[in-house]
Amino acid sequence: MKIKVINPNTTLAMTKGIEHAAKSAARPDTEILAVSPKMGPVSIESYYDEYLSIPGVLEEIKKGEDEGVDAFVIACYGDPGLNAAREVTDKPVVGIAEASVYLASMLAARFSIVTVLPRIKTMLEELIDSYGMEKRVLNIRTTPMGVLDFERDPEAGIEMLRKEGKKAVEEDHAEAILLGCAGMAEFADSLEKELGVPVIDGVVAGVKFAEAIVDLGKKTSKLKTYKYPEKKEYIGELKNFGHNEATIK
Amino acid sequence: MKIKVINPNTTLAMTKGIEHAAKSAARPDTEILAVSPKMGPVSIESYYDEYLSIPGVLEEIKKGEDEGVDAFVIACYGDPGLNAAREVTDKPVVGIAEASVYLASMLAARFSIVTVLPRIKTMLEELIDSYGMEKRVLNIRTTPMGVLDFERDPEAGIEMLRKEGKKAVEEDHAEAILLGCAGMAEFADSLEKELGVPVIDGVVAGVKFAEAIVDLGKKTSKLKTYKYPEKKEYIGELKNFGHNEATIK
Amino acid sequence: MKIKVINPNTTLAMTKGIEHAAKSAARPDTEILAVSPKMGPVSIESYYDEYLSIPGVLEEIKKGEDEGVDAFVIACYGDPGLNAAREVTDKPVVGIAEASVYLASMLAARFSIVTVLPRIKTMLEELIDSYGMEKRVLNIRTTPMGVLDFERDPEAGIEMLRKEGKKAVEEDHAEAILLGCAGMAEFADSLEKELGVPVIDGVVAGVKFAEAIVDLGKKTSKLKTYKYPEKKEYIGELKNFGHNEATIK
Amino acid sequence: MKIKVINPNTTLAMTKGIEHAAKSAARPDTEILAVSPKMGPVSIESYYDEYLSIPGVLEEIKKGEDEGVDAFVIACYGDPGLNAAREVTDKPVVGIAEASVYLASMLAARFSIVTVLPRIKTMLEELIDSYGMEKRVLNIRTTPMGVLDFERDPEAGIEMLRKEGKKAVEEDHAEAILLGCAGMAEFADSLEKELGVPVIDGVVAGVKFAEAIVDLGKKTSKLKTYKYPEKKEYIGELKNFGHNEATIK
Amino acid sequence: MKIKVINPNTTLAMTKGIEHAAKSAARPDTEILAVSPKMGPVSIESYYDEYLSIPGVLEEIKKGEDEGVDAFVIACYGDPGLNAAREVTDKPVVGIAEASVYLASMLAARFSIVTVLPRIKTMLEELIDSYGMEKRVLNIRTTPMGVLDFERDPEAGIEMLRKEGKKAVEEDHAEAILLGCAGMAEFADSLEKELGVPVIDGVVAGVKFAEAIVDLGKKTSKLKTYKYPEKKEYIGELKNFGHNEATIK
Amino acid sequence: MKIKVINPNTTLAMTKGIEHAAKSAARPDTEILAVSPKMGPVSIESYYDEYLSIPGVLEEIKKGEDEGVDAFVIACYGDPGLNAAREVTDKPVVGIAEASVYLASMLAARFSIVTVLPRIKTMLEELIDSYGMEKRVLNIRTTPMGVLDFERDPEAGIEMLRKEGKKAVEEDHAEAILLGCAGMAEFADSLEKELGVPVIDGVVAGVKFAEAIVDLGKKTSKLKTYKYPEKKEYIGELKNFGHNEATIK
User: Fold this and answer.
1) How many CB atoms lie within 10 A of CB A16?
2) Which of C72, C98, D28, F214 has the fewest Cβ atoms within 10 angstroms?
3) Alpha-carbon span B85 to B206, nearest angstrom
4) Are the C-beta atoms of residues C108 and B226 closer than 8 Å to each other?
5) What is catalysed by this protein (chains A, B, C, D, E, F) (predicted)?
6) Among candidate residues C50, C67, C62, C56, the one with its CA nearest the CA of residue C86
7) Of B8, B50, B49, which Cα lies nearest the Cα of B183?
8) Span F14-33, mean pLDDT?
9) Chain B neighbours, 3+ Cβ pairs < 8 A
10) Is the pLDDT at E244 greater than 70, yes or no?
11) Measuring CA to CA, which residue among D125, C140, E121 is closest to residue A135?
12) 3-state secondary structure string across chain A
């Protein structure tokens, strides 16, 4: 099967890292197609960035129909555009935050998230609430490092995650740690060894769940909420998002 | 003061109607600037449309800085882009769904919303939950009419709202009716007379709340969640959303 | 328009302060009528005081009909008698706690309340829950000072608010501070300057929301929960609260 | 022991009925003192009535100290003044709505409430929420009969309860029925036989819980929320509620 | 009346202590029958122990029918098997955790629980949530001591409870302390004196509630959730739990 | 890898059906070991049956250690013993109700469950709440058929599911249907074709999630809630559950 993993930001080095993580988790017969959108921000660290990453994500979802893609993974921990992506295609679409909390719930009773800048804490709280997981998440721990700081200085990154992960275990009594950024995948294994609790990266969780859903032959429900978008005109820079065969079946 | 009312869809006839409603509610000394974005969908009836309306909305928010705008109203009942808009400016930004539920809560103990197509019910449920109003909203009643159907055939529109409004009062025991689409503003007064309960249009509620906040000299908190977006590069059709003086103070 | 601001306690000095705040926020064409009830406690610092302030508040609401009042503001942070007041009149009635949380929600994602004695914390928690705002309120910070202590020693009052406000920002990461007592209105502006986040006083918020609702011509729904009280006899000291034309339309 | 059962309304015939129910449930060595306040409404059917019944209730609580009362039951299904009563005395105070939901929870997984006029539905919903019982209460069924209608026409009363009780069992699948008015106590036994599920009257539940708490020697916590009211002056018709030895220990 | 108090663990010394507490609280005319099951763990400190204590508990419930028991108390703070016990008999069954939170709610606005090992915190959180009491419980404080440690070294036990109880009062601002293990009953009185807030043991609460319910002649609803178990075959060590007259009426 | 699928009831014909479903979904290289416990009920249709199935389930979990099992699936829609199973082993354990709601959440915004007898509705409601999925589940539809009725008369079974499934789609507007019993797996595909929405069987969902977790090399967190059970003695029929090497690592 072919799974398209979309890194919603436009930093290709980060997409490479995500691709690597996805491939390391995928089964041998699963083809991973890892991409960044053709438009949007180099990193996502605010509502502004998140919303503006969505057009590019949706474009990649639409392209997936021609690329013979069987399922999609949206690889940013805010799950940007997830609901719209489910409208645009009937192929399964999995968000990495969503995948990580469901996976964690099957392994640990209570857990904490470690993520990037303080400003995104409210965003993640709202997201966790929308998944019904607020009772299980003990804390959302932010760091002074931005998304690309983890790319630029992985040494500092792992050190920061180690520090906050330890506090999550010792102070929150977190029974698992969730990595709240797609760019942290590479640190999961060594952190898990050091911290002694499951450390969960959403990218690999998302890929495995996507494989599972494709194996089961399940598709997104097209009955009501996730119907294909209504046919209509779009104007300006986004005019290509208007009705055309690829979008609206 | 100057209030910019942004109709997130690109149908100018509807923007006219919204402008008319806004002006009828505004104080004589309030200037209303009603606009549609330069890009995006002609109507918003899905997550897809909603997310894709946001770039255009944010562009209008940014322009507002140069236009001497004192406050913004986002005039679509999904409050698209509201959180990001609050990052982009320190001027108050009010969403019409948000304004309508707060206003309704000061007038009625329990209420129902009447809106457009069934597919948006989940979207509105999630929105109402995020505002903490789930206990007060008895029902979200959808109709088979789309956003522009209310423009095209106002006779049918009022008839549909009358019918669902009556059911809301008689079956839900709704003590107020909220109009779940910016294009329904014109029907509020006659419906209120017929139904005998407050009928609340979010556009006028949003304008009045915006006036109130400007009068108080209050601005959006820039401490954490709504800080200005981080400076960074954007690419592709959205490259203008990258860092520049207007966006990032 | 004429807005009657009712200070539910019987300390006239405090009513003067509330009047001053209300007038400073009201539009030039808004007449503010600030009163204290003719019966009840000199301050409200318990359920006991709160409940016993309500008869006096309701008496003032009823009088308002003859005074040509267009809207009412109940100016104590427990919103005493708010639901009953909405039964007694069809004019809009706004509580200052209610107004402050709705206003704050349009300016800040998360906030804390600073208020008087520790014993009222549970009261405020229950109130915040009833408004659906529990997710947004990070903390309710109490002080060792009672309501009238802030009147008697404003120097100590501002110092206390400054201290707790700072802790709210630094420890709770509150993005706005709500002043949890009508007698704190005078401190809002200087605190806001010092703390760097919106500091919200409910009195001015209540007045502005009342103006907005009157402008819109909206009245309290009389369908069910807020119907006029049933006609019936009252005895004893409260016999005047029984049925008469002014009360029961 | 001596339990004072306070009927918060001033209709003595109803107090007699409540006294009868209380005595029939009390142990032989329990003395029941059933009273109505000296001031307030003849029945409670709105927020207005409820709040205005509280001064009379609190006066009776205070008198209880001199009467050698060991515990109090507030016998109106809105539990008027319950929190303030717990401030005024350290003797246990039990509300009948509270008692009925806790009792019901030990006998049935899910239940419905049958009560008086439609207008009090919101009041009861808020009360049930404050007790954390919203998941267990399937429905609050109102009737077109007021409180005193059940006194005046018990035939019609039982018929109405039978009808709504049956619908509760058949349509709500209620596993117990709670009688949502102190004046319905007399109907409980025959309804229970007819409906085949527990029918719970709060008056007898309240009395038995009060006996249990007194037996255990437990008193209301005076640490924080339920501390004795602060000493202060009251004016007007309520001036006797100000500080004096009986109130403020 | 006869109340059977079932200590779900098989440590008879602990059953003796529970019997002593139950008898000290019971009325003179109440006969207390305190037992341990014939099978299961010597103490309950995990989900594993809890679930494996249930067969023994249910066996004791079933035997109660022949023993002329009027009501049952399940005396372990996880309320093991409570829902199934209510299926097996129509006599009232009360859990001690359940009883303690309802009792506490009538005496204190907010409270904390002090219990045994850290690993049971999640279990208690889920239990408290299922009783709708999550808002009232400020903290669940665990200790490094297991259930039988309190038996073996009561000196250390009271010291530990004293320490955590004090922290509950001073740090949580708990207005009552709930003892989260049936083996702590003996410490309640002296702790209450020291801490100055109600200290609530579930065993005595359960006994008094059971007495109250029997006095009222109420039985468990057999309509739906708590119907007698369906008749069916059981195999293996548990074959005696299959259908027979005693179990299935 | 080897996945042990435990049918918690002792009806081997049903275990065969579950085995068939599990194998049809498993990857070629996944070995499915489907078993029933050696003790317990022939079907699970009450809290009584559910709790009494747990000892047998836990015994099978423990045996799994010697059988070289990599992960477990508990194949009854009440997820009996799931938390204890996670204590007993560090291999992943997945419940089929849990798996079905997480899978459904990735495919549909809102869904309904169709299950067996009415009496289990409360059980499922509590389970769904504990997974945080109450907002997504529109309805739990019960049928007059017991667990084994679906075995005995599959014609009637499919007819019943068809009928309730249709009502779920048409009346609840369910966007997916979850089959609330492990014995319904065989009906999923034909129902999905007829109903036009995803029909989700928990057995196959559980198997695929187990595969995914094993692929990722993740194990259950042993930090706190799911630590191995404390070493201790058990007596009576359950004495083998006491401490021994297999159980307590």
Assistant:
1) 14
2) D28
3) 15
4) yes
5) a D-5-monosubstituted hydantoin = a L-5-monosubstituted hydantoin; D-5-benzylhydantoin = L-5-benzylhydantoin
6) C62
7) B8
8) 97
9) A, C, D, F
10) no
11) E121
12) CEEEEECCCCCHHHHHHHHHHHHHHCCCCCEEEEECCCCEECCCCCHHHHHHHHHHHHHHHHHHHHCCCCEEEECCCCCCCHHHHHHHCCCCEEEHHHHHHHHHHCCCCCEEEECCCHHHHHHHHHHHHHCCCCCCEEEEECCCCCHHHHHHCHHHHHHHHHHHHHHHHHHHCCCCEEECCHHHHHHHHHHHHHHCCCEEEHHHHHHHHHHHHHHCCCCCCCCCCCCCCCCCCEEHHHHHHCCCCCCCC
Q: Tell me how far apart the terminal alpha carbons of chain C are, to the nearest angstrom.
A: 22
CA dihedral C13, C16, C22, C27 (to 10 degrees): -170
Residue type present at position E139: N
Helix (H) or strand (E) holding D148: helix D147-152
Rounded to a whole number of angstroms, the distance between the first and last alpha carbons of chain F is: 22
Extents of the domains making up chain E: 2-95+205-241, 98-202
**Domain D98-201 belongs to what topology?**
Rossmann fold (3.40.50)
Tens of pLDDT, residue by residue over F85-112, are 999 999 999 999 999 999 999 999 999 9
Residue with tokens 């021609």: A66
Q: Are the beta carbons of F71 and F5 closer than 8 angstroms?
A: no
Q: Are strands E93-95 and D137-141 parallel, antiparallel or unpaired?
A: unpaired
Q: What is the distance between the alpha carbons of residues B4 and B210, in angstroms, rounded to a whole number? A: 10
The answer to whether residues A227 and A204 touch, using CB atoms and an 8 Å cutoff, is: no
User: ipTM of this complex > 0.85?
Assistant: yes
CA distance E130 to chain F (A): 8
Amino acid at site A76: C
User: D234 to chain E, minimum CA–CA distance in Å?
Assistant: 26
| Nearest-5° Cα angle at B218, B217 to B221 | 150
Closest listed residue to residue F7, CA positions, set F86, F45, F47, F60: F60
- Residue-level pLDDT at B116: 96
Q: Which pair of tokens denotes residue B62?
A: 């940014």
Distance from CA of D86 to the nearest CA of F (A): 33
Mean pLDDT, range F59-66, rounded to an integer: 96
Whether F98-202 and F2-95+205-241 are alike in CATH topology: the answer is: yes
* CA of A215 vs chain B CAs: smallest distance (Å): 27
Q: Which residue has the higher pLDDT, C247 or B150?
A: B150
- Token digits for C57? 């508040």
DSSP 8-state code for residue D167: H
Task: Tell me, yes or no, if E225 comes closer than 8 A to chain F by beta carbon.
Answer: yes
Question: Which residue among C94, C197, C223 sits closest to B197, beta carbon to beta carbon?
Answer: C223
User: In angstroms, what CA-CA distances link F188 with D195, E5, F14, F96, F204?
Assistant: 39, 46, 16, 14, 10
- In the sheet with B2-6, reading across from the earlier edge strand, the strands are B31-35, B2-6, B71-74, B93-95
The reply to whether CATH 3.40.50.12500 applies to domain F98-202 is: yes
Segments in chain D below pLDDT 70? 244-249
CA dist E161 and E169 (Å) reads: 12
Statement: residue B244 has pLDDT above 80:
no
Residue E200 with chain D: CB contacts under 8 Å: 218
Q: Over the range D128-163, which residues count as b (16 or more CB within 10 Å of their CB) and which as e?
A: bbbbbbebbbbbbbbbebbbbbbbeeeeebbebbbe
Burial class (CB within 10 angstroms; exposed 0-12, middle 13-18, buried 19+) of F1: middle
- Return the pLDDT at A244: 57
**Which runs of E-coded beta strand occur in chain E?**
2-6, 31-35, 40-41, 71-74, 93-95, 111-114, 137-141, 177-179, 199-201, 234-235
Distances from the Cα of B116 to the Cα of A36, B119, B151, E17, F31, angstroms: 35, 9, 12, 65, 51
Contact D175 E98 (CB under 8 A): no
Q: Which chains touch F (3 or more CB pairs under 8 A)?
A: A, B, D, E
